[in-house]
Design a protein that fits this description.
20 strands; 559 residues; 39% helix; 8-stranded mixed beta sheet; alpha/beta
């Protein structure tokens, strides 16, 4: 098997694409021309913009076949423990499996393995999981951390809102900036040093499984190749053809189109439109919703040196008629960026950051997503189990990395390749699914008042301002406990008696019913955890050293 060298330099793109869009998207083309590797990233932007909606709405194609033809099996000569489809965070997960657990892995991507178009923010307790699992040393951890903040805040525009709230400040919420490229570079190096392999420019076509093996068919340089593994790991993102095939009746309900850049040299200061490199801006609105109901939201995080990451995004129902084009959103971004943060005389637009992050308005007592089949499992965005409120895919991924890698190792060691085992590897977090109900408040609608989203969120921020600080931090870190959630729900009607009108207007009777069901699932999960802790762990049984199922329970209980 030929592998790529991964001395990543000079990412080439189609220059003619820039000229093609020059008349319709002049600001976007102008800025991408000066962006680092701009033509390459513009090509990826256009590809994503033209395909994601169609992929989300298209009838799923059969891409997993539960039988391996004899000729296919014979042609797939190279054998791996794990084959990863997707080259972003898949590189990190594969590197852990190769470096820590000594598994033979291969990662392929239709673009380039091990690079990403955005940087990441996380809290230090979450990031330290990479050291605790044995993947990074302390020195390596410090190399990927480019900045730590003294805090971050959320502030919604309130000039026209029915409710007003002071900026809500947090600690230990997205307050560590991580160099994604440095982390993925380490992952590539450790993966290759452990004997792992990587393939660029390889597109997934289909996979065959028989309960013992998966054979993945890819196309690379116009030729078909077959990869044999015990398990195929689907990390092709939220619109993965595998994830869509596994969930034909459960498509995404909401999405968050996001554009931005990792820039240098904004004007430094403490004014609203200046950059304070010691704080992060988690969610900020500068005005009310536009005429179509889109509530645009800014996010800003200092990175290394004078770098500052800015994002512009909005929440929406995936099937709404509102414009979700990333190209069009970039035009707004480049037109209004300097209203958010002013540049100085040495301003450099830097690198692009964009994506469409979908979510599910969860409705059920347990996980409604199918995340595995025989010899196949979806992880990361493909599993769609991260927060629908803050969309912290990186935080969720790292927080559950020990679980997914440890249980995957056990499955490989014990030959547990059937769906009933692999589906337990993913972490379904009831408190995260419950946050989908809060996320619905951020979705504007054309018939709402333009100030509707800001009013609802200012009411919610006022509640979080008055309850103990740790509750807001838990909510925005995706770690809210049952008790904290109860405290919020009891405080809302006491502080804002009219809140029920907003709840009913935003969710309707059906939405409120599923909110109650989701809370019931959260409560049942909490009750089970208490019973296990009281009657099993106190009995002295070492569940972590027993069966696969026992290890699953250990992770579910946070032990």
């Amino acid at each position: 098997m030929n592998t790529c060298s991964h001395d990543i330099q000079n990412l080439h793109g189609d220059e003619s694409l820039l000229k093609k869009y020059e008349a319709t998207h002049p600001l976007t083309v102008k800025n991408f021309r000066v962006l680092e590797d701009g033509a390459y990233w513009f090509e990826r932007l256009v590809a994503l913009d033209s395909s994601w909606k169609a992929r989300a709405e298209a009838k799923p194609e059969q891409v997993i076949f539960k039988k391996i033809p004899d000729d296919v099996f014979k042609k797939s000569t190279a054998e791996y423990d794990l084959v990863y489809a997707g080259g972003g965070l898949a590189t990190l997960h594969a590197a852990v499996m190769a470096h820590v657990f000594k598994k033979r892995v291969l990662v392929f991507d239709r673009f380039t393995v091990g690079i990403t178009h955005r940087d990441w923010n996380i809290s230090m307790p979450e990031l330290r999981r990479l050291v605790e699992i044995g993947f990074l040393t302390e020195d390596e951890l410090q190399r990927i951390v480019v900045r730590k903040y003294r805090g971050g805040f959320v502030k919604f525009f309130d000039e026209n809102a029915d409710y007003h709230a002071e900026p809500l400040w947090f600690e230990n919420v997205l307050d560590v900036a991580v160099s994604a490229n440095e982390l993925l570079k380490m992952a590539r190096e450790k993966l290759l040093a452990a004997g792992g392999e990587m393939l660029d420019g390889a597109a997934f076509k289909k996979a065959y499984t028989n309960g013992e093996w998966a054979v993945t068919e890819i196309e690379r340089e116009g030729k078909t190749e077959l990869l044999k593994s015990r398990v195929l790991i689907d990390m092709m993102g939220a619109f993965s053809p595998i994830a869509r095939f596994l969930n034909p009746k459960n498509p995404f309900s909401h999405c968050c189109p996001t554009v931005g850049a990792i820039s240098k040299n904004f004007k430094e200061g403490t004014a609203r439109d200046e950059v304070d490199y010691s704080i992060g801006e988690i969610l900020v609105t500068l005005g009310d919703a536009d005429e179509t109901g889109r509530q645009l939201i800014w996010e800003g995080f200092p990175s290394g040196g004078t770098e500052y990451v800015t994002y512009l995004f909005f929440y929406d129902e995936i099937n709404s008629e509102r414009d979700k084009s990333l190209l069009n959103l970039y035009e707004i971004y480049f037109k209004t960026l300097h209203d958010y943060k002013k540049p100085d005389e040495n301003f450099d637009i830097g690198r692009p950051a964009f994506g469409v992050i979908p979510s599910i308005l969860h409705a059920g007592l347990s996980n409604v997503r199918r995340t595995a089949g025989d010899n196949v499992i979806s992880l990361g965005d493909a599993a769609a189990l991260s927060s629908p409120l803050t969309y912290c895919g990186f935080g969720s991924f790292v927080r559950n990395l020990e679980r997914t890698t440890t249980l995957l190792k056990t499955a490989l060691d014990d030959g547990l390749f059937k769906e009933r085992f692999l589906k337990k590897i993913n972490a379904y977090e009831p408190h995260v699914s419950l946050m989908a109900n809060f996320a619905a408040f951020l979705v504007g609608k054309k018939h709402y008042k333009p100030s509707a989203v800001n009013s609802a969120m200012n009411m919610f921020m006022d509640v979080l301002y008055r309850v103990p600080r740790h509750i807001g931090e838990e909510i925005f870190r995706d770690t809210v406990t049952w008790r904290s959630y109860q405290d919020v729900m009891q405080a809302v009607p006491k502080l804002h008696p009219t809140s029920y009108n907003i709840l009913f207007e935003q969710h309707g009777a059906r939405g409120l019913f599923w909110w109650a069901v989701n809370f019931g699932g959260f409560s049942w999960h909490e009750a089970k955890a208490r019973l296990f802790k009281k009657y099993v762990f106190k009995s002295g049984k070492a569940l972590g050293k027993e069966s696969f199922g026992a290890k699953v329970r250990r992770f579910e209980l946070g032990r």
